[in-house]
Amino acid sequence: MAKTKFIKNWNKTTHVHFKKNWELAKYAFLGNTINTLSLYLDIFFLNHLVKNPEEIGFYGFALTLISGLRIVTSTAQQFVTPYYSEFSSNDKQILKAFKKSNKIFCLTIIAVGVLAVFVAPIVIHYLFLGKYDNSMFYFQVLTLSWAIRSWVSLKGPFLLAIGYVNVAFQIALIVLLITVIPYWYLVKFYQIQGALYGQVFVAIVFFIVVNISFKNVVNKVYKIQQD
């Protein structure tokens, strides 16, 4: 009898925890999925709208290099997520932790971005004997788009730490809805150049939407607490 009661209570507790965790996980999953789709819109459009395999190859090599920079961003996000969560119950501490880590990361973005723009072309030229020199302009512009997106990338883990995972999902969805048609237009009529500068356009929209959403959440949270 006691065993049956224990199993029922355990099942009930498990169900409650699963339901609660899924409410958070579904927004994180959907947000990440949409954000990835938004990030790689250029590949999808290029495959369907551009018929210049040589230039696509140069652009693809530039994207391969950019994936290394994106690892810097994702690693920083993974590192600060538990760091912010540790202070989630202390408002002053979590804001202090965010400001400090965000400042360090922004300086890191500048340093890595400058090195990438000026050093990578030289290294690639000597490593591949000039074979991918035509990729370097693409890489430099894509580095700019990476820097713009990364500048606000730690705000996502902050929102996660204070329980606003749904906002990260909303940001990803808004950015995709705003950018998908203009991006398609750019690639259709300006081909590779359209895809390239479309990445910068998406990054700028992402930067603006994240900043507005972040500011609204922080103002809302602290207004409630002050009231």
Report the span from N to C terminus. 50 Å
- What is the domain tally? 1
Number of discrete helical segments? 7
Mean pLDDT: 87
What are the low-pLDDT stretches, counting only 5+ consecutive residues below 50?
none
Principal-axis shape equals globular
Q: In percent, how helical is the residue content? A: over 70%
Summarize the main sheet. Answer: none
Range of strand content: under 5%
Structural class: mainly alpha
Q: Radius of gyration over alpha carbons?
A: 21 Å
Task: Work out the number of β strands.
Answer: 0
Order of SSEs? HHHHHHH
In words, what does this structure look like?
- It is a single chain.
- The chain is an all-alpha fold and 227 residues long.
- It has one domain (2-226).
- Helices cover 89% and strands 0% of the residues.
- The protein has seven helices and no strands.
- Helix 2 (41-49) packs antiparallel against helix 7 (165-226), helix 3 (53-86) packs parallel to helix 5 and helix 3 (53-86) runs parallel beside helix 6 (155-161).
- The longest helix is centred in the last third of the chain and has 62 residues, at 165-226.
- It is globular and about 55 Å long.
- It starts with a helix and ends with a helix.
- The model has no long low-confidence stretch (mean pLDDT 87).
